[in-house]
Amino acid sequence: MGDWSLVVPHAEAVRSSGLHLAAPHPALAGEVLGYSGREQVLDAPLRWRPAVLGAVTVTLDLETPSRMLLDEEGANPHPRDPVLGLRSRPLALAEEPGLVRTLTVGLSPAAAYALLGVPLGELPPDGVALERLLGRHATLLTEQVAEAATWRRRFALVDRFLTARLPHGPRPAPEVEHAWQRLSRTGGALRIAALAEEVGWSRQHLHERFRAELGLPPKVVARMRRLHRAVGLLATRTPAAEVAHFCGYADQAHFTRDFRALTGSTPGEFVSSRPCAGPRGRPAGRSA
């Protein structure tokens, strides 16, 4: 899953033994960034703040207790089978005790556009139910995946669904796709003015089209891609000061501020969560 990151603070990290990771079918490489199955029995309520860097996520709720979205206005039900577009801040969630079994798909923005059939700028910022976008196809997919006996079979069903749908969906403008790829390959180091010149647009036009089609402006995506690169280095236990210098931050303080703004935690909190130390819960039984 080298093209995206999931950052969760130490105190809220999900127990690693409850995770099942898989790569998509080779035909989906570059479009589907990876699969993550989560299977865990929560013995007590769990609050956590996942921050996804570099992907649109679709989560199939195969078995879940009540899940609430926490914001300044209080707690509100979070949609089942949520689709989350690109975000510049973490999500605050609360889950009730019980069995949690979910399958999350990480998608490139272009693949998400093709799957969902709408520009990502139209997605609600805190998530939308997949059924609202795909109708009965979403319901049938979740039911089929929930009925599968093993994680291998679940991932294969999602592979088949995406293989059938992605080639026939709409795509972002070629200039927007090119801009995303360039920001990804350079780790966010490319100046937006230079990127606009590459695609033959004004900087303002690039800003408007990029945001409308992918959900965030290119400057924010550049910050996310740079932080994604930094997260990869932190995961190897590279000191934060070295990571800040290597990734082009002015200093370690600048790096820490940007990390907190985009993920809700600090580099130190992220590092201390590897390997993941779980909340008050236990892994559910595994299936091969």
Q: Give me the number of helical elements.
A: 11
Give the fraction of residues assigned to helices: 25-40%
> What is the name of the CATH topology of the largest domain?
Jelly Rolls
Average predicted local confidence, pLDDT? 88
Structural classification: alpha+beta
Give the N-to-C terminal Cα separation. 20 Å
Structural shape: globular
Largest sheet: 7 strands, antiparallel
Query: Order of helices and strands, N to C?
Result: EEEEEEEEEEEHEHHHHHHHHHHE
User: How many E-type strands?
Assistant: 13
Q: Strand percentage, roughly?
A: 15-25%
- Rg computed from alpha carbons, rounded to a whole number of angstroms: 19 Å
Top keywords for this entry?
288 residues, Jelly Rolls, seven-stranded antiparallel sheet, disordered C terminus, Arc Repressor Mutant, subunit A, alpha+beta, 2 domains
Describe the structure.
- One of its GO terms (molecular function) is DNA-binding transcription factor activity.
- By secondary structure, the protein is an alpha+beta fold.
- 39% of the residues lie in helices and 22% in strands.
- It has two domains: 5-170 and 273-283, Jelly Rolls; 174-267, Homeodomain-like (Arc Repressor Mutant, subunit A, Orthogonal Bundle), CATH 1.10.10.60.
- The protein is built from eleven helices and 13 strands.
- β7 (67-71) and β8 (74-77) form a beta hairpin.
